[in-house]
Amino acid sequence: MEILNKLKNLDAYPKVNEDFYNRTLSGGLITIVSSVAILLLFISEIRLYIYSGAETKLIVDTSRGERLRVNFDVTFPSLACSLLSLDAMDISGERHYDIRHDIVKKRLDHLGEVIDSRQGDIGAPQIERPLQKHGGRLDHNEKYCGSCYGAEGSDDHCCNTCEEVREAYRRKGWGITNIDLIDQCKREGIFQKIQEEQGEGCNIHGFVDVKKVAGNIHFAPGKGFHQLSFPFLDVFSLQAEYNISHTINKLSFGTEFPGVINPLDRAQWIQPSSSGIYTYFIKVVPTIYTDIRGHKIYSNQFSVTEHFTDGNIYPRPLPGIFFIYEFSPIKVLFTEENKSLLHFLTSICAVLGGVFTVAGIIDAFVFHSHRAIKKKMQLGKQG
Description:
- The protein is an alpha+beta fold.
- The chain is built from six helices and 14 strands.
- The protein has helices at about 1-10, 25-50, 160-170, 185, 190-195, 340-380; strands at about 55-60, 65-75, 85-90, 95, 105-110, 115-120, 200-210, 215-220, 245-255, 265-270, 275-290, 295-310, 320-325, 330-335.
- Strands 1, 3, 4, 8, 11, 12, 13 and 14 form an eight-stranded mixed beta sheet that branches. A six-stranded antiparallel beta sheet has the order 6-5-7-2-9-10, with no helix packed on it.
- Strand 3 and strand 4 (about 95) form a beta hairpin.
- Helix 2 (about 25-50) packs antiparallel against helix 6.
């Protein structure tokens, strides 16, 4: 019994007889408000416990020799698909001109509706008595060897397609000024296709695989019939000015992860009176996102600035859109984490105790203020 009495003396929560309670209207209102606050904060803590949050960490990017997939979806409302080409190059010297694989082009009418969708180049070659390198037409059972129109690398060099003629001119650093004079291009129906698509637009989407080094991706009119480093020569007499107005529906570097924001998605630019170069300077930040199960997503974030260069200068610049990108030396690590059960219980206790304590202070202040005012009013009446 002595031990039990000693335990009673240690009680930090002495009980008060209900006969001594003084319940008030203000106390009832404060109780309701504090109960609602406790409920809302309790729900908020449960949500934070159930749904994971991401911890951010910065490290130096030491990766080497990796490759990167650049995903894009760009619409040109006033540029025909036959005139649109995609080139990519980087500082390591890797260059790809008029990329066609993993890319789909959709012809659009003036309302933006899809007319046709295709992957690859324009039409198929028509091998019907093509022009030989020696100047005559191909005879029966004769091996075809087309002319490179002065761009041959050797005496036995043949250019049998429009693409091979263009490639030969690239190696020489020349530009083709009149496509209608190239027999291979005429047979493949390129010039006719361009005339058919007058006034149309084009949507081009897909991806390109590039090295993880600084470089640029270039959307250009002219179907690649000019050298990128060579002053622009107008290829087609039917279109002296190119309208490079565009809408970037999607642009991302690598696989997307939860919560990523790509600043160029749905970006739109309207060309002023003259054509020129529209350049996006992109800073790419390598990112690794690790979900709650430990699965890693290797991706990238990026920031961007924009600049337009008017084409009314000499030498006239190549019109088009450039995405010039470089990589940050800093890598961002996102790691999904859930709160521990102990942390959750601690937060719940803090919510309950904090709200209860603050409500008690407010109730005491209101109660004693009301008593003081009431007492002064009684003394005033007696005086």
